[in-house]
Design brief:
Chain lengths: ~230, ~190
């Protein structure tokens, strides 16, 4: 008889059978179980029982259905309510502390070099962002858009993925803004919107954009467009 | 095309990305719901609970350290929520519910037919297990969790996970035997 001679070892192997059937054992344990199964007919028979249970458990769970759309609506309503109360801080703050931690471990000479490199990287990033933001669009205004004149104050906006056409219309109406161009040829579904027919002072434009930014249900990204 | 990893999604959620939250929800809401509904045995309660589970994910994403997989982390949250909901129910109500879940095959007009259908009987007996046993069976067989992951979700040592699984299977065998299906184990 090829059965595992040591009973405690057999118990140990048998205890692993459910995980072996589910494929969640480590390679080493899976090999041990495979070897034991190959030489022990009774263990192999018990393994068949495990596989039977596994199949029926999956079958049973698959008949349980799925939650209705109500669960998702409730979740995102709760998220919106939380964000309206206290918009979350971005993780960049954590990144900042990690960078500080990293810098604190460097020698003064390395630190000086690293700080220069970091400053250069920040400038480069700002330049890239600025280049993206001021790049003239190649795509002409689509039908239904307001005339893309250069008069007035503007912003570029990416609408939130969950925003409906209705949300966007209401949003633009509430701020007396008009969609003048887009999507712009700079990737990311950006649109140019006119905030005012006349050129507003910079700080006033900034204030409007900040207000718009807080409308996270509709706005994914927004920036002043000079 | 490779989909965004769960860990990347959690990072985005930590930064307030609602779209990442929608993706994660779409990826896991059915599994989390099924795990919860098997514990609480009430679809409406389970629906409320999964909203709470994902809201916790939204709130705590910034604190996720990646020590476990995202699905293991979510199931642990789901389990905590489900057990809290169960504790709010009256014990008597629970006992009655558990008892009613195990139908006596002898009293069932369809028994003769069902006895022939071993699969149906196994599923019926799986429904008759206690919450503790249902939970471990589901985590191992349906949610494909390793011994270590189950230990983390349930909050018990790995050896206890193996022992509990053994007793859950043993209880299942007893229920099957009582229903007229002798499997020769244990």
């Amino acid at each position: 008889m090829n059965a595992i001679s040591k009973e405690p070892e057999r118990h140990e192997i048998e205890a692993l059978l459910p995980w072996h059937a589910a494929g969640t054992l480590s390679r080493r344990d899976a090999d041990r179980v495979e070897q034991a199964l190959a030489g022990d007919r009774e263990l192999a028979r018990r393994y068949d029982l495990v596989r039977e249970e596994l199949a029926e458990t999956i079958h049973l769970n698959e008949t349980l259905g799925a939650p209705s759309a109500r669960a998702m609506e409730k979740l995102f309503a709760a998220i919106d309510a939380e964000e309206a109360r206290a918009p979350r801080r971005q993780r960049q703050f954590d990144l900042g502390s990690r960078v500080s931690e990293f810098l604190s471990k460097l020698t003064p000479r390395t630190l000086a070099w690293s700080a220069t490199a970091a400053a250069a990287a920040i400038l480069l990033q700002a330049a890239v962002i600025a280049a993206v933001m001021v790049k003239e669009p190649a795509t002409p205004a689509g039908p239904g858009l307001a005339s893309a004149s250069t008069e007035g104050s503007f912003a570029v906006v990416r609408f939130a993925p969950q925003a409906t056409a209705n949300d966007i219309t209401n949003f633009l109406g509430a701020y007396k803004a008009t969609l003048v161009e887009g999507p712009l040829n700079m990737g990311g579904q950006l649109y140019r919107i006119r905030l005012s027919e006349t050129k507003l002072p910079k700080d006033e434009v900034g204030k409007i954009v900040r207000q718009m930014q807080s409308e996270s249900k509709v706005v994914g990204f927004i920036a002043v467009r000079e | 095309m490779q989909s965004t990893s769960d860990e990347v999604l959690i990072g985005r959620i930590a930064n307030g990305d609602r779209l990442a939250m929608q993706v994660l929800y779409a990826r896991y809401h059915v599994r989390v719901f099924r795990f919860v509904v098997r514990l609480v045995r009430d679809d409406a309660v389970a629906e409320d609970l999964i909203s709470e589970v994902f809201l916790d994910v939204w709130r705590q994403a910034g604190r996720f350290e990646g020590r476990s997989t995202v699905s293991t982390w979510m199931l642990a949250i789901a389990r905590f929520k489900a057990l809290s909901a169960l504790r709010r129910r009256l014990d008597g109500e629970l006992d009655e519910e558990t008892a009613s879940a195990i139908e006596d095959p002898a009293d069932d007009p369809g028994t003769a037919l069902e006895k022939k259908d071993k699969s149906t009987m196994i599923r019926k007996c799986l429904l008759g297990l206690s919450a503790e046993h249902r939970e471990i069976i589901d985590l191992v067989y349906y949610h494909e969790k390793s011994v270590g992951e189950v230990a983390e979700i349930v909050g018990i040592p790995e050896n206890t996970v193996k022992t509990r699984m053994f007793y859950a299977r043993k209880r299942l065998a007893e229920l099957l035997k009582a229903a007229g299906i002798e499997r020769g184990w244990p």
